[in-house]
Amino acid sequence: MEPESIEDYYERIAAHVGADGRLPVAVEEMPGWDIFPYEVDSLRLKPLQPPAATEPARRGEDAAACWCANPVDPDSDSLMWWNERWKVDLGFEGSGLPIMAWLSPLVHCDLGTMPPAVAAELGSLVGTMAGAIEGLPSVGRAQLAKYGDGGAHLHLLLMGRPARMLQLRGSPLLDWEENLPRVPSEVLASNGRPVARALAEAHGGWIGPAAQR
Ligand SMILES: [Zn+2]
Q1: Spatial CA neighbour of 190 closest among 210, 205, 208, 206
Q2: Could you tell me how many helices (H) and strands (E) the chain has, helices first?
Q3: Cα-to-centroid distance, 3 and ligand 1 (Å)
Q4: What are the pLDDT digits (tens) for 97-107?
Q5: Binning pLDDT at 50, 70 and 90, where does residue 93 land?
Q6: C-alpha of residue 72 to centroid of ligand 1, in Å
Q7: Protein fold of 70-211
Q8: Angle at CA 150, nearest 5°, toward 147 and 153?
Q9: How far is the CA of 107 from the centre of ligand 1 (A)?
Q10: CA within 13 Å, CB half, 44
């Protein structure tokens, strides 16, 4: 059997929608767990939409129009650490978590198109960051995400899940994050500093303004 088409995938799902075009909320699954941010009684899914005609272009799909066409700005407020091949930005536009840091290679690629040398270094960088994030007093666990539906250039999100706040465990962490009050930027900087230092120690490079305020 060949891998199925998206039309077949969609049709199988669409067969389960009710008269209002919605799938039922899976109360026996994660929506019913204690880590889910919303109460099931007041919840309904949005009407299911069919596949679009094409995948939309993402920001920086063309390398010439991507941020990586310009050198790293060492004065950038969001820059936490960088070296000759990688950079880490802090989420200064707002974070409800103790730390949210974006790791990107400076060479233009996505996860599926990484040059072998970039792929080889990625694991070690993620390990350094996760260890330093889990060393923060307000963090219980480091989480790692790769989405890439908005920007074409590879960016991995490392998040610090607040320590002992067990409701915030698992994949709903980002949904919680959107609803949490913002962490002050000076607190984000002091949490980012040990992570930037660990990166500089293990991978060279420089600590940026976001970890120095
Ligand atoms: Zn790029």
Answers
A1: 210
A2: 4, 6
A3: 31
A4: 999 999 999 99
A5: confident
A6: 12
A7: HIT family, subunit A (3.30.428)
A8: 75
A9: 6
A10: 8
What's the one-letter identity of residue 138? Answer: S
Nearest to 83 by CA among 106, 99, 67, 61: 106
Compute, in angstroms, the gap from residue 62 CA to the centroid of ligand 1: 8
Ligand 1 mean position, distance from CA 48 (Å): 33
- For the chain, give every residue range classified as CATH 3.30.428.10: 70-211
**175 conformational bin, left if phi > 0, alpha if psi -120 to 50, beta if neither:** alpha
**How confident is the model over 188-202, as pLDDT tens digits?**
999 999 999 999 999
Compute, in angstroms, the gap from residue 206 CA to the centroid of ligand 1: 21
d(C-alpha 189, C-alpha 158), whole Å:
15
Tell me phi and psi for residue 19, to 5 degrees: -60, -25
